[in-house]
Specification:
GO terms for molecular function: aspartic-type endopeptidase activity. The protein has 5 helices and 28 strands. By secondary structure, the protein is mainly β. Bound molecules: 2-acetamido-2-deoxy-beta-D-glucopyranose. 2-acetamido-2-deoxy-beta-D-glucopyranose binds next to loops.
């Protein structure tokens, strides 16, 4: 414990105690509700005291949100300052750090929030936030509050977020992400489960330090826990990459442009399949998209076509009442060890039209590396995703009959 006096804009904040103060949670999982913003289709988590949501970014390294004018600061040469900046992916936002004089005793710790929707960076104060969630203690649910390190946002950065969102909850595999901080604070296993809600209704959930047993029956939870695949990592970011070796449409392999078309080059960060909560529909590099579209087109030759509804290219006549009964072919991702993951292939866009729910990547990403695919939120809504940050593995369920509702403790 070191008392520190920081002078900022005439405010004098007297700080004591260590940067991440721990509050007892008793080693039980911590859960927070996840919703879907109807206007942006972004997923939001309610974890902030004061009732404001944060946008869920599975690849985000950091927690950032609006700060009151009088917020806690850290000196540049403090361990908290080192910690909060340890895992900011190089080359994304840190370019502004050359303006910081770290040896100046008045230097206030900066950090670099990143807006995953616009690709914009900020340079702002590092601070601590008081967050709130629910501890799942058997059948009992108890409110808990806790501290997390993060970044104050700037006006510019949150302007593009949903109206009720005050920032971004970074859920990456890195040391300053929310799952890492929450599980460390509550001394929980370094894992979390995520269930994105379907836009049609219901609530989703993120469970820190907990696994499938809060959302699945004992047997299904056991099966899921035993069915993990390693996730891949890139040196350029904190995203979770899936090792996808191929794609099936209607159980037949799609002819991809070349061997290893979906592979990640872990050094350069090129290629690979990223699980993304900030793109709505799975977005594929042009060559892969064209191959998949052609396969789906051929496999649906018997289904009457409808005029295309932007941003989709291939649409079908399908009433919402009969959509689930229609013979749309499945799209399966082929993973290691003969496993497949079936993802949603069509989306109902109005009462008479369903569209092939994949998009072509058009923009070169601003960060300089281009994935082969961004697996979008729609493709894994109402499914349970389990991330084990210790073992570096990932598990997934099929569509949950009861949605993401927390059923058993
Ligand atoms: C950084 O701060 C130190 C201590 O105040 C000062 O001596 C030094 O000149 C500063 N460096 C620059 C580049 O401003």
């Amino acid at each position: 414990m070191w008392p520190v006096v920081v002078v900022l804009c005439g405010l004098v904040l007297v700080l004591s105690s260590s940067p991440t103060s721990t509050q007892a949670g008793g080693g039980v999982p911590i859960v927070a509700p996840v919703g879907k913003d109807p206007s942006t289709s972004l997923y939001t988590v309610t974890i902030k005291a004061g009732g404001h949501d944060l946008v869920v970014d599975l690849s985000g390294p950091l927690h950032w949100s609006r700060c009151p004018p009088a917020h806690r600061n850290f000196p540049c040469l403090s361990s908290a300052c080192q910690a909060v900046n340890r895992d900011i992916p190089p080359g994304t936002c840190t370019f502004t750090s050359k303006f910081i004089n770290y040896t100046d005793p008045n230097c206030i710790c900066p950090t670099y929030p990143y807006n995953p929707i616009t690709g914009e960076c900020g340079i702002t104060d590092a601070t601590t936030f008081t967050l709130s969630a629910t501890a799942l203690n058997g059948a009992q649910q108890e409110p808990v509050t806790f501290m997390a390190l993060g970044a104050c946002s700037t006006e510019l950065l949150y302007e593009t977020l949903p109206a009720d969102s005050w920032g971004v909850a970074g859920m990456s595999r890195l040391t300053q992400s929310l799952p890492t901080q929450v599980t460390s604070t509550f001394k929980l296993p370094r894992e979390f489960a995520l269930c994105l809600p379907w836009s049609g209704g219901g609530s989703g959930a993120v469970i820190f330090g907990g696994g499938p047993s809060q959302l699945l029956s004992g047997v299904a939870a056991q099966a899921l826990s035993e069915n993990q695949v390693p996730y891949l990592k890139s040196s350029t970011n904190g995203a979770y990459y899936l090792h996808v070796t191929g794609i099936n449409v209607n159980n037949a392999p799609v002819t991809l442009p070349r061997e290893g078309a979906l592979d990640l080059n872990a050094g350069s960060g090129e290629g690979g399949v990223i699980l993304s909560t900030v793109v709505s529909y799975t977005t594929l590099r042009s060559d892969i998209y064209r191959a998949l579209l052609a396969a789906f087109d051929a496999a649906t030759s018997g289904v009457p076509r409808a005029p295309a509804v932007a941003p989709f290219e291939l649409c079908f006549q399908a009433s919402s009442a009969s959509a689930s009964a229609l013979p749309f072919p499945g799209v399966d991702l082929l993973l290691d060890n003969g496993r497949t993951w079936s993802v949603a292939s069509v989306v109902q866009v109005d009462d008479r039209t369903a569209c092939f729910a994949f998009l072509e990547m058009t923009m070169i990403s601003r960060v300089g590396w281009e994935p082969a695919a961004l697996l979008g939120g729609f493709q894994f809504e109402d499914r349970l995703l389990l991330f084990d940050l210790e073992k570096e593995t990932f598990a997934f369920s099929g569509p949950l009959a009861g949605g993401c509702a927390i059923t058993s403790p």
